[in-house]
Structure to design on (643 residues):
């Protein structure tokens, strides 16, 4: 003990070190430029190259889409080159005239309010389920996955018993069909995909093999093939009297295809849940389905939500492929309309495709932003 | 509430006595013989501490009590119910056996309160309000009622482990299993968890604790079990166990941990 007491003290702090604010960052706009765009010679070259690329590509696009564009007019004449207008831009007049066809296809004009109500109901469902802070999201899920499908079917297809005339699906078209195909794919693929993912991790070999077989088969086949199979082969398996509707066949094909992809996304999320979570849930005497529904899936889906939305984006764009089995989605209605001799001009096709591109971009970019927002929110939440 | 004494009405005469009885238990992981001929009877209200070198099968033994692990030979009887592969039997046993893990294993997507009410609501079919009152009572008992509405990630390790204890107690178990409850904690948090466990032990609940905390064993255990290489090597009263270990391997182990 004496030896310890005799050892001189090496260091003891007498006054606390001052707490200082962080040093001020680089100075002003020039400083920002130097740090971010011209830090090294390589960096500077890259910056200049990108600026040149933007300068080359963007102005002509803007000129075509906006500055030289024709916004209204009765027929093709306004969109043709003339001395006053030597280089015609996009012919938006054509889109305006055909817009209702692009939205509804041949859906009877008197019944189109039903489509509008469907769009509104769908938007409500997406907003309810999509915003994390919305109230009663459990009710939202019931609405989205149970009420909405029934409501949509009654609205769109009709139910003569309550005074809604039947509208056969071959009259549906345009944005309506695109949204229906995408929505059915999304609403069906999430639950089916979850079941497939659980099946793939099941301890029962038969269930596992079935799930793996289905997932791998569908993933190994292009969507076009699935659509052809659904539209050509499905009728072979059911009696002619019950032969499913052409649109329904395509919907089944899309739903199965999307489910297989969703299953793999969900499986990734499930793999990310630590084993201890399963053990804790089992130790609390939760049954398999309660463990999955209350403990495992909420975590797996939350982590993998951005990937789920990415799959939705892919699915949304893939819906254009249904035109190969003769269904009038948005792209197909544009194809049909641009053949109208009243509007035949060199810029008609380009305008129609620009319209389609804009439509798909708005939806996909919206979903993408949403996924990013959720991701940021989750990492900020720091719940894990 | 944790039951103070075994309910005499629930225990049929033939089943009275052991809370846990393991007979001729063997388990293999592939070729590896992880549990070898385990025979152990734990009385109601008894407090058992299991220690021994890692890889000796302590955790595996503990996890056989609520059948988080299955086994190839032998039998495990918990509260008079023999555990078989039958899911109903397993769930019935798990309802009365609480477990606390080394890594806490709280559910990160639920608040502390929701962690505690989940099983009472979904397994015990308790009303939400009643379950929350129960949970608050146990959270108060582990001394963190003020954290009830936080998410687990916001809590320190010691607080998380105390929530895990409260979560298990909310199911009113007859038996509590602790699988190295302090091994993942920073040193300054070990005491708060051990204190909670000491209080629990005073209530008379049956406890099986896998732990390296020799001080806790000395203070609380009725019997200390030393396991090595998949076997029970020595079972002794704590005084005897620490003062005069009988087996050579126990002596070697104690020399290592009690330095």
């Amino acid at each position: 003990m004496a030896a310890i007491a005799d050892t001189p003290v090496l260091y003891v702090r007498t006054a606390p070190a001052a707490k200082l604010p962080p040093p001020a960052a680089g100075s002003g706009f020039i400083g920002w430029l130097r740090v971010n765009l011209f830090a090294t010679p390589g960096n500077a070259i890259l910056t200049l190259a990108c600026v040149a690329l933007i300068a080359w590509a963007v102005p002509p696009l803007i000129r075509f889409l906006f500055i030289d564009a024709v916004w209204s007019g009765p027929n093709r004449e306004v969109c043709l080159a003339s001395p006053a207008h030597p280089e015609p831009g996009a012919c938006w007049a054509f889109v305006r005239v055909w817009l209702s066809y692009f939205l509804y296809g041949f859906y009877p004009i008197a019944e189109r309010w039903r489509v509008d109500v469907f769009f509104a109901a769908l938007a409500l469902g997406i907003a309810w389920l999509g915003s994390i802070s919305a109230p009663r999201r459990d009710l939202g899920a019931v609405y989205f996955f149970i009420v909405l499908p029934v409501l949509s079917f009654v609205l769109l297809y009709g139910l003569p018993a309550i005074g809604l005339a039947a509208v056969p699906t071959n009259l549906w078209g345009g944005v309506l069909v695109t949204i229906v195909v995408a929505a059915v794919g999304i609403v069906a693929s999430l639950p089916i995909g979850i079941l497939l993912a659980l099946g793939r991790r099941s301890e029962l070999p038969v269930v596992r093999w079935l799930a793996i077989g289905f997932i791998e088969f569908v993933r190994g086949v292009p969507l076009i093939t699935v659509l052809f199979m659904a539209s050509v082969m499905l009728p072979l398996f059911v009696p002619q009297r019950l032969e499913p509707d052409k649109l329904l066949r395509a919907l089944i094909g899309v739903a199965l295809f999307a489910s297989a992809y969703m299953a793999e996304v969900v499986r990734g999320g499930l793999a990310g849940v630590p084993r201890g979570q399963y053990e804790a849930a089992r130790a609390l005497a939760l049954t398999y389905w309660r463990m999955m529904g209350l403990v495992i899936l909420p975590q797996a889906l939350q982590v993998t939500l951005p990937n789920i939305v990415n799959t939705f984006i892919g699915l949304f764009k893939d819906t254009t492929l249904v035109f190969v089995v003769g269904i009038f989605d948005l792209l197909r209605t544009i194809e049909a309309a641009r053949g109208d001799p009243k509007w035949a001009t060199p810029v008609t096709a380009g305008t129609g495709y620009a319209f389609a591109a804009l439509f798909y971009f708005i939806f996909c970019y919206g979903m993408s932003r949403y996924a990013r927002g959720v991701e940021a929110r989750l990492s900020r939440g720091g719940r894990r | 509430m944790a039951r103070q004494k075994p309910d005499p009405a629930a225990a049929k005469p033939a089943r009275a006595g052991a809370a846990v009885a393991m007979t001729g238990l063997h388990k293999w992981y592939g070729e590896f013989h992880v549990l070898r001929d385990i025979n152990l009877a734990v009385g109601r209200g008894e407090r058992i501490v299991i220690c021994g070198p890692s890889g000796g099968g302590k955790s595996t033994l503990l996890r056989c009590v609520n059948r988080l692990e299955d086994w190839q030979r032998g039998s495990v009887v918990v509260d008079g119910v023999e555990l078989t592969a039958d899911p109903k039997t397993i769930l019935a046993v798990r309802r009365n056996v609480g477990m606390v893990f080394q890594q806490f294993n709280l559910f990160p997507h639920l608040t502390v309160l929701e962690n505690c009410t989940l099983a009472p609501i979904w397994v015990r079919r308790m009303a939400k309000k009643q379950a929350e009152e129960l949970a608050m009572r146990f959270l108060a008992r582990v001394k963190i009622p003020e954290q009830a509405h936080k998410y687990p990630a916001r809590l320190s390790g010691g607080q998380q482990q105390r929530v895990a204890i409260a979560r298990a107690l909310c199911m009113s178990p007859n038996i509590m299993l602790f699988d190295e409850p302090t091994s993942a904690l920073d040193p300054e948090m070990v005491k708060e968890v051990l204190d909670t466990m000491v209080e629990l032990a005073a209530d008379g609940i049956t406890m099986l604790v896998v732990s390296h905390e020799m001080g806790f064993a000395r203070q609380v255990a009725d019997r200390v079990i030393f396991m090595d290489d998949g076997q029970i090597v020595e079972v002794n009263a704590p005084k005897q166990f620490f003062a005069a270990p009988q087996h050579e391997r126990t002596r070697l182990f104690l020399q290592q941990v009690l330095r």
Strands of chain B lie at 18-29, 32-43, 47-51, 73-78, 81-82, 97-100, 175-179, 206-210, 223-228, 231-236. The first helix of chain B runs from residue 58 to 65. Chain B has nine helices and ten strands.
